[in-house]
Write a structure and sequence with these properties.
Radius of gyration: 18 Å
Number of strands: 0
Helix content: over 70%
Shape: globular
Distance between the termini: 25 Å
Number of helices: 10
Strand content: under 5%
Order of helices and strands: HHHHHHHHHH
Structural class: mainly alpha
Length: 251
């Protein structure tokens, strides 16, 4: 496992060296969302009885930051390594394809959780959302960041330049994130959009994570757990198959 630990440590050092970009910047972005939306809607929206809109918004922003940064970590690292050519040193190492996968995904989980914790702590200045079931929240944060870390590996393998990676993020990750219930409950949507939301895996990650705070959610957290776990297992198997085949890395 020495090769795995080396690659994992290298990925963590990469996050640390540019912490202003990888940690502080997304925390600031989330706080700007919180400042604007809470100021505009605090007095007009009540999603759960007795829960301020600002408190409702904080878990959604935390989870959104976790997911987006987990994806950004693995995808940006891979595309940079491919473009600069230093990916060859990783491929020449005695590194099994599953060790390659674990190193990138676990580093993505670490970055996602660090950013999420930073957003949560900074957001406490605005409101104190209850944390009724912290283990549920942690479970969905880990599963969600692992899922997006795996998707980032796929995007990094598939992309050959930064434009393609940006398109993947702008046309897939961002729309699915913003339409997942970060800023609203799906019960406030028309019937058609409620049904459509149930086909968005990001919705289950956000809703399950929010259940850990309030003990309330749009659907059962067990359903969310099954969906998120199933999506992760399928995507992980697909990613491992890509790595084993050497697609766009060794071939």
């Amino acid at each position: 496992m020495l090769s795995f630990y080396t690659l994992f440590h290298k990925e963590l050092l990469r996050v640390q060296k540019v912490a202003f970009q990888t940690v502080l910047s997304p925390v600031l972005t989330a706080l700007l969302y919180l400042l604007i939306f809470s100021h505009l809607l605090e007095q007009h929206v009540e999603v759960y009885p007795g829960v301020r809109y600002t408190a409702f918004l904080i878990p959604g922003l935390v989870m959104m930051s976790v997911l987006q940064n987990a994806f950004a970590n693995s995808s940006s690292s891979l595309i940079q390594s491919k473009i600069t050519g230093n990916i060859v040193f990783v491929l020449l190492a005695p590194l099994a394809y599953w060790e390659f996968f674990l190193a990138y995904v676990l580093a993505s989980v670490v970055r996602g959780l660090v950013v999420g914790a930073g957003v949560y702590l900074a957001a406490l200045w605005f409101a104190w959302p209850p944390l009724q079931f912290p283990l549920w929240a942690l479970l969905f944060a880990v599963l969600g960041s692992a899922l997006l870390g795996s998707l980032g590996v796929v995007a990094g393998i598939w992309s050959e330049k930064f434009d393609q990676l940006a398109g993947f993020q702008n046309f897939i990750i961002l729309p699915l994130t913003f339409l997942s219930g970060v800023f609203y409950s799906i019960h406030s949507l028309p019937a058609f959009w409620q049904v459509l939301s149930h086909f968005n895996p990001f919705f289950y990650m956000i809703d399950g994570f929010r259940y850990g705070f309030f003990g309330s959610s749009d659907i059962s957290p067990w359903i969310s757990l099954v969906v998120v776990s199933g999506c992760f297992l399928v995507l992980a198997a697909f990613t491992l198959a890509l790595l084993r085949s050497g697609y766009k890395l060794r071939l």
